[in-house]
């Protein structure tokens, strides 16, 4: 009888560990998906920022010539 309780306890604790492992795997997958989505958003922001900076350089030149300093 004690052996049955021991085996039953072992199976219950193993089942809990399997469920815990599945939960951790699900959470990791969600975090990886979110990270990939955030990386895509940052890439788009960086591209847009570069375009805006290029337009500003055309509209508002910087450097010695723009400040009226003779060479």
What does this 3D model show about the protein?
This protein starts with a helix and ends in a 12-residue tail after the last helix. The longest helix is centred in the middle third of the chain and has 58 residues, at 2-59. Helix content is 82%, strand content 0%. It contains 1 helix and no strands. It has one helix spanning 2-59. The protein is an all-alpha fold and 71 residues long.
Q: Could you give the topology of this structure?
A:
Elements: H1 2-59
Quick synopsis:
With 71 residues, this protein is an all-alpha fold. The chain has one helix spanning 2-59. 82% of the residues lie in helices and 0% in strands.
Number of helices: 1
Strand residue percentage: under 5%
Mean pLDDT: 84
Please report the total strand number as a whole number.
0
Largest sheet composition: none
- Taken in chain order, the helices and strands follow as H
Distance between the termini: 99 Å
Helical fraction: over 70%
The rounded Rg comes to 30 Å
Low-confidence stretches: none
Which descriptor suits the 3D outline? rod-shaped
Provide the structure class.
mainly alpha
Top keywords for this entry?
71 residues; rod-shaped; mainly alpha; 1 helix
